[in-house]
């Protein structure tokens, strides 16, 4: 076996002297994929960055001997670390009354791990993590499709579209949130979601790059004033009307319309935004109002597959299980495990080549040590089974409960036993919960602790961690992904598979005055909020209706 590494060292991200080595690797990947011509490698300032593989799947459909189109499906499980897969596997085995040897769909395609640091920190955020995937370079926390100097970098979605591929985005977050935004927009601060929505519709230097988008976050597409309810824009731009009139977007008005779509009769571009803010956690999701992640992904794949059936180019799509991360942020184990299982159901339905995470969230540990006697541990997955709702939803409900004098009885007789399965609350716990002056954040955190403690689960943080994340791959050239990689190795792989040129897209983005205008809007935005919003810990928009 050759001793030559399949992927370059992470040190190459900082030393331009290694550019030749990275070009050699890129050529090697192209040759391995049966392609002959290498595209140029994306550069950030003087440094050259190679990409790592995050969730990606390549499959080929052959029709009557024609050259097969290449379809790249990138799957991102946001905030999903190794311990989370253990949690989900153990819980799944319990509810199915199977032995601990029962595996989840991801388990059979584990090939390695991915390092997740950003250019500004050993602990990345989702914006920098997704930009590493989309632009094949490291950037700072908060960066959306820009390099460390804040200059737009061409994304794999844009490069694919400009090469003739069709493109799509699916997420259970707002479609303007960090991960989908990093493939489809360029801003120096992730909180500029009004601007991100404008670019996703098609109003920037490259024009419309997205052919299909499903997710949440309609509030960023509706004007602040007028008859449209549920807006969170700071201006009166009506992007839905503008998108229809100027860019010929077709808008899905409801989940029923979505489910009744005839994929053979769909006109693209197609936009389906099913909630004002993020979509619900899977544990809270009302099936009559919101489709599941699996539903959206399969519908999107069916539509894009049919649309490209006679094309020599296929499609690129990024699909994100966004809410896995948000459940971990609030240390809610039941919401976390249900979103992980939904993601695994998606893996089961879609033949995946690569799947990984942008980072781990929560610092999850599975089991508590009992006392001082070693080894004696507690981990009880059965505690999660009776939980009916996320702590987020319960906390919002308690804050809005109309009869404050009856709240203590309601909590002890209904909320704890019926919604969370807790029948052994202590006096200290009840005293905390029945205080009518508690905030939603206090309720949310405390309820998460109550469930986690009883299950034997521990959380180290409400933020992200620096732990490596699992890398999954199966099929076409998956041997290139064995071992431990920088998160920037995926971009090169996708660039090679699609045979596109990220640097040429970066050059096109540098033309014209559009970026100066975006920076001008950022200056106004940053003055309005009074801080660098890229580090804003709030995932939700307070003025949008509760889900």
TrEMBL record:
Domain of life, per lineage: Eukaryota
GO cellular component entries: fungal-type vacuole membrane
Entry binding sites for Zn(2+): 78, 325, 329, 368, 464
The UniProt record lists the keyword RNA-binding: no
One Gene Ontology MF term: metal ion binding
Binding note for cofactor: Binds 2 Zn(2+) ions. Binds 1 Mg(2+) ion.
Gene3D superfamilies, per database record: 1.10.60.40, Alkaline Phosphatase, subunit A
Keywords: Hydrolase, Magnesium, Metal-binding, Phosphoprotein, Zinc
UniProt-recorded name of the protein: Alkaline phosphatase
Family: Belongs to the alkaline phosphatase family.
Active site: 126 (phosphoserine intermediate)
One Pfam family of this chain: Alk_phosphatase
Organism, scientific name: Rhizoclosmatium globosum
InterPro entries cross-referenced by the UniProt entry: Alkaline_phosphatase, Alkaline_phosphatase_AS, Alkaline_phosphatase_core_sf
Residues reported to bind Mg(2+): 78, 177, 179, 320
Catalyzed reaction equations: a phosphate monoester + H2O = an alcohol + phosphate
Needed cofactors: Zn(2+); Mg(2+)
